[in-house]
Amino acid sequence: MSFLIRAVFAVAACALMAVAAVLLVYAPYTALRQGLGGDTLVHEALLNIVGYLIVAIALFDVAKYFFEEEVPAGREKRTAADARRGLTKFLSTIIIAIFLEALVLLFETAREEIAEVIYPALLVGIGCVALVSLGLFQRLSATVERQIGPEREPQGEARRDISPAETAAPLASPGSNR
Q1: Tens of pLDDT along 46-75?
Q2: C-beta of residue 127 within 8 angstroms of C-beta of residue 95
Q3: Is 162 helix (H, G, I), strand (E, B) or coil?
Q4: In this structure, is the dihedral angle defined by the CA atoms of residues 52, 13, 60 and 117, taken in order, positive or negative?
């Protein structure tokens, strides 16, 4: 069953990367076609490109998250700190995409219909709430990790011994000739 789940995540990640790649090619094509064809103003076409590129980058990052966190075998035994770091990377990408899209919408709306600026402003507010929520999650989970202590590896896992050559050399005292 674990193999099937990993395979589904791998296929989904590949599909997301394919859609993102198409968007990376489609965005400049449509901007050139619209800008040179006289259908839209150049600055509107460029803002459209930015919107497509933001979506493409977010899709690539989600696919990368799937490949790093969900596809590899043996990731079920990761620690809470590993899960927190992975979730933080994933949500950070989503939050950045929200803010960038809100910025593009704000510019577009301010030029066209100033009364409609409320919707991009709400999107900025949603991004801020998501960012504060991520910070709160980080704070609470780090506090719990400190209170509980580091997780121990499962009994069956063999821990690699560190050789004396891999350990850090002690710091020299101020009067020594090291």
Answers
A1: 777 888 888 888 888 888 888 887 777 665
A2: yes
A3: coil
A4: positive
